[in-house]
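Session log. Operator J.P. requested a structure for one protein chain; no other inputs attached. Running the standard single-chain path with C-alpha cell output.
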Amino acid sequence: MKHEIDKLLENALKLPSEARAALAGSLLESLDDNLDKDSGSAWEAEIARRTKELDAGEVQSIPWSEARKNIVGE
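Structure written below.
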C-alpha cells in the first residue's frame, strides 16, 4: 500500500499547480463527513467578521507569500 501511495503522490506532484490545488481541495472535501455539522455556520460568521474588519480598515491584508513565510518560518 505504501508503494501505491508514494507513486500516487509522485504522479500528483507532476500536475500543474491548478490541478494540484483542485486535487487537494477534492481530497479535503472527502473528509467533510467527519466535520462538526455547525462548523459551516461558524466559518461563515468568522469570514463575515474578518471581511468587515478589512472593509473598515481595521486590519491590513498581506500577500500569501509573506503569510506563508510567517507560517513555515522561512
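Operator note: The chain has four helices and no strands.
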